[in-house]
Design brief:
Layout lengths: L2 E4 L2 E7 L2 H15 L4 H11 L6 E8 L2 E11 L8 E9 L8 H15 L5 E3 L6 H9 L17
Helix pairs in contact: 1-2
Length: 154
């Protein structure tokens, strides 16, 4: 994976290792205030292994985790051809706007290109303004599908 220079900070983007998971848990807990260690360990087990269609990348400066991104190649119903899906991205709040998120996004897109897909998608909550702004800044816009749901407790 490439090395990046942003704001005179050098960091490396690479596939996550088991040792990185504790840092991912710490960053996620810092941001969400909800510790989910089992969730992140499970994601690492599924996406951390070398593969052609699942990717768990981290941005590191020495031993410090700056951010991470997780995605996979999926084919969906309704005639959607295989494409890359990003379903987790996070950057340390202290360094946001420094380019780390964009570098992680670009590295994930490179993984998707190598997997022979030409489109990237994500899904997020309507009120996730920070994520919406981030993905829009990467050139993403509304796609051809609309999510519908129903509360099953009715």
């Amino acid at each position: 994976m490439p090395k990046s220079e942003e704001s005179s900070t050098t960091y490396t983007i690479r596939p996550a290792t088991l040792a990185d998971v504790q840092h991912v848990i710490r960053l996620d807990t810092q941001i969400t205030a909800v510790p989910k260690p089992e969730y992140w360990r499970g994601l690492f087990e599924r996406y951390g292994a070398e593969g052609d269609d699942r990717f768990f990348l981290v941005a590191m400066q020495g031993n410090q985790l700056l951010g991470f991104i997780i995605g996979e190649v999926r084919a969906w119903e309704f005639g959607s051809p295989p494409c890359g899906w990003i379903f987790a991205v996070n950057v340390d709040p202290e360094i946001r706007l420094g380019g780390v998120g964009s570098a992680l996004f670009d590295a994930m897109c490179d993984c998707f290109r190598k997997a022979k897909v030409s489109r990237v998608r994500t899904m997020l909550a309507r009120d996730a303004q920070l994520l919406m702004s981030f993905f829009r800044s990467q050139g993403m816009m509304a796609g051809p599908f609309i999510e519908l749901e129903k509360d099953l407790d009715e």
